[in-house]
Specification:
The protein is α/β, with parallel strands linked by helices. The protein is about 30% helix and about 25% strand. The strands form five sheets. Strands 2-1-10-9-11-12-13-14-15 form a nine-stranded mixed beta sheet, with helices on both faces. It has a seven-stranded mixed beta sheet with strand order 6-5-3-4-7-8-18, with helices on both faces. Strands 16, 17, 19, 20 and 21 form a five-stranded antiparallel beta sheet that branches.
Length: about 550
C-alpha cells in the first residue's frame, strides 16, 4: 500500500521514465518479437528519443492544441507506446482504434471522439504482413494526408527534437477507451492521467514489477486491459517489455523459453489455446512466477491447469471505466482461493449494492460497485449514460457478485445477461459452468430466448466437438441444476460470436438463439481473426 501511494504521488509519468533512463540508459525498454536486425530492441534512451520525436511531430501538426484528441490504429508496435507517453507529455488524448472493427464502425468512433489526426505505422517488421485497413484510406481521402501521422520504428534512434513542456494537470484526459459494445453501441470512457497513475500503482502492488523483470505482452494494446494491466505499469517500473505483434501459441512458448519473462497477462481463450497445444506438457514455463488473467470469468479447469504447472493465476477484475484494475488477487490469494476475483485494489474501494445503490452484507448477491482515483471522469459527450453508472462517486459495473466475510469477491454474472424465466432469475454463467463439462461440447454460451409462456427460457449456443450428442448434453444438466435453469434448446454453431478480446457478443448470441433453427449452424459462422484471442477483463 505504501509503495502504491508513493508511486501515485509522483504526479508525472515522465519523472518515472526519466529516473529509469538516467539510471540505466542502455537497458532494454521494449524488445519486439520475433527479433530481427531491422527491428532492434528499444533502450531506455531510445524510448525517450522516440517519445520526444513523436511529441514534436504532434506539436507541429495542423490544429495542435492541448486537449485535442488523436486516433491510433495498428498492431502491437513500440511506436504506439512512445505515442502514449508523448500524449502524456503534451496533455492530449489518445483514442485507440480496434483494427478488427469495420470501416463503418471506426467512422462512428471517429465522429463521436471528433479527432482530426490519425496515427498509423508506416513500416512493418520484416517478415510480418503489411498492416492495411480500409478505414485508413477513407480517413486520408476525407482529411487529407496531413491528417495522417506515420510512426516509424526507426525513430527510436533519432535525436531529441523538442523540450518537454510543463507537466499537464493530473485531471487531464489521457485516453478515451471505447467499450466493447457487447450489449449495444460502444461508449467512450474518459480516463485521466491520474487514473492511469492510480492504476499503475495498483498494478505495482499486485504484481511487484521491478527493473530486473521481463514482462510478455500478447494481448492487443488497443484495449485498456492489454495496455494498462501490465504493459504501461511495467515500463514505469523499469522492466523490460517483450512485445510480439500478436498472440500465437508457438510464439508464446518460444518467447518464454528464450527470454524468460516472469509475468504475462492472458484471457481465457488464450489460456485454452495454450493448454490444448501439443507443447503444453513439456514447454519450459519455469520463468513465469505468475500470470494475470481476466476479460471474463476464468474457468476453474484452466486455473487448475496452470497451477499444476506451478504458475499462479492472478485474476484481475475491472472494466474500461476503471482503467481497469479494481479488484485483484495476489499470488498468495490466487493459490489459496482459486475462482475468486480477489480483494479490492489498494487504491480504491469496492462493495456489493442492491438496485437502489445501498451496500449489501457479506454473502448477499448484488451489483459490484467500485470507486477510487482510477475510475473514469465519465463517458465522452454522454451525460445521461454517465449519470446511469456513476452514483455518488461509485461506478456501477453491471456485474453481479458477492463478497465473503473476509472481503473476498466472487463473480456471478453480467446483470444484462440475466434471464428471467417464469419469475425466476437464471444466471447464464451458472448454466455455462455445467455446459462446459458436458461431453462433446467444445465451448458454449447461454442466453435467453423469448417464450410465450415463461417470458424467457435458457438456450445454449454450442460449438460441437467429437462425440457430441444432443440428447446426452441436455441430460447432462439433470440433477446438476434446477429444472427452470436447464437449457430448453441447443443451437449449434461453428464458432461463438466474439469481439477482439474474446468476449461473447450478447446481441449476436441472442440473434442466433432466437433466429436459428434448433440444431443447425448459422449461414455465417463467427470466428476471430487468425492468430488472435478468440475467447473471453470483465467490462461493460
Amino acid at each position: 500500500m505504501n509503495g502504491a501511494r508513493r508511486m501515485t504521488s509522483e504526479a508525472c509519468f515522465g519523472a518515472t521514465l526519466a529516473e529509469h533512463r538516467a539510471a540505466r540508459p542502455e537497458a532494454i525498454a521494449i524488445r519486439p518479437l520475433p527479433e530481427h536486425p531491422a527491428m532492434p530492441p528499444w533502450s531506455r534512451e531510445g524510448l525517450h528519443q522516440a517519445i520526444s520525436r513523436i511529441a514534436a511531430m504532434l506539436a507541429a501538426a495542423p490544429g495542435f492544441a492541448p486537449g485535442m484528441r488523436i486516433g491510433w490504429i495498428g498492431p502491437n508496435e513500440p511506436p504506439l507506446l512512445a505515442l502514449f507517453f508523448a500524449c502524456v507529455r503534451l496533455g492530449i488524448t489518445l483514442v485507440q482504434l480496434n483494427w478488427r472493427l469495420s470501416a463503418e464502425e471506426l467512422r462512428w468512433i471517429e465522429a463521436d471522439a471528433d479527432f482530426r489526426i490519425l496515427c498509423a505505422p508506416c513500416q512493418q517488421r520484416p517478415g510480418a504482413p503489411a498492416f492495411t485497413h480500409p478505414y485508413i484510406k477513407e480517413f486520408e481521402a476525407r482529411c487529407g494526408s496531413e491528417g495522417r501521422l506515420l510512426l516509424d520504428p526507426a525513430m527510436a534512434s533519432a535525436g531529441e527534437t523538442d523540450p518537454p513542456p510543463d507537466a499537464p494537470a493530473p485531471d487531464t484526459p489521457l485516453l478515451i477507451g471505447y467499450t466493447s459494445g457487447t450489449t449495444g453501441r460502444p461508449k467512450g470512457a474518459v480516463l485521466t492521467q491520474a487514473a492511469f497513475a492510480a492504476n499503475a500503482a495498483n498494478a505495482q502492488a499486485i504484481f511487484g514489477f521491478g527493473p530486473a523483470d521481463r514482462v510478455l505482452t500478447v494481448l492487443p494494446l488497443f484495449h485498456v486491459g492489454g495496455l494498462n494491466i501490465q504493459t504501461v505499469p511495467a515500463l514505469l517500473a523499469g522492466a523490460e517489455l517483450l512485445l510480439p505483434q500478436r498472440f500465437d501459441p508457438d510464439g508464446f512458448f518460444d518467447a518464454v523459453a528464450l527470454h524468460r519473462p516472469g509475468l504475462t497477462l492472458l484471457v481465457p481463450a488464450v489460456m485454452q489455446a495454450l493448454v490444448a497445444h501439443p507443447r503444453w506438457a513439456t514447454a519450459d514455463l519455469g520463468s513465469l512466477r505468475a500470470i494475470g488473467a481476466g476479460s471474463s470469468e476464468v474457468p476453474l479447469r484452466l486455473i487448475e491447469a496452470f497451477h499444476a504447472r506451478g504458475i499462479p493465476v492472478q485474476q484481475i477484475y475491472g472494466a474500461t471505466e476503471t482503467a481497469p484494475i479494481a479488484i485483484a488477487q495476489s499470488r498468495a490469494e490466487a493459490l489459496a482461493h482459486p475462482g475468486s476475483i480477489g480483494l479490492t485494489a489498494p487504491l480504491g474501494e469496492a462493495c456489493i449494492q442492491d438496485p437502489e445503490g445501498r451496500p449489501l452484507p457479506p454473502g448477499a448477491e448484488g451489483e459490484i460497485a467500485v470507486r477510487g482515483p482510477n475510475v473514469m471522469q465519465g463517458y465522452w459527450r454522454a451525460p445521461g449514460a454517465t449519470a446511469a453508472v456513476l452514483r455518488d462517486g461509485w461506478f456501477a459495473t453491471g456485474d453481479i457478485g458477492r463478497m465473503d466475510a473476509e472481503g473476498r469477491f466472487w463473480f456471478t454474472d453480467r446483470l444484462k445477461h440475466l434471464i428471467i424465466s417464469g419469475g425466476e432469475n437464471v444466471y447464464p454463467a451458472e448454466v455455462e459452468r455445467v455446459l462446459a463439462t458436458a461431453p462433446g461440447v467444445l465451448e458454449g454460451a447461454v442466453c435467453g430466448r423469448p417464450d410465450p409462456r415463461w417470458g424467457e427460457v435458457p438456450v445454449a449456443v454450442v460449438v460441437p466437438g467429437p462425440g457430441f450428442d444432443r440428447a446426452s448434453v441436455l441430460r447432462h444438466f439433470e440433477g446438476r441444476l434446477a429444472r427452470f435453469k436447464q437449457p430448453r434448446d441447443l443451437v449449434l454453431v461453428a464458432a461463438l460470436p466474439r469481439n477482439a478480446l474474446g468476449k461473447v457478443q450478447l446481441a449476436a448470441l441472442r440473434a442466433l438463439a432466437a433466429g436459428s433453427k434448433p440444431g443447425t449452424a448459422p449461414d455465417r459462422p463467427w470466428a476471430a481473426a487468425p492468430g488472435q484471442p478468440a475467447g473471453p477483463l470483465h467490462g461493460r
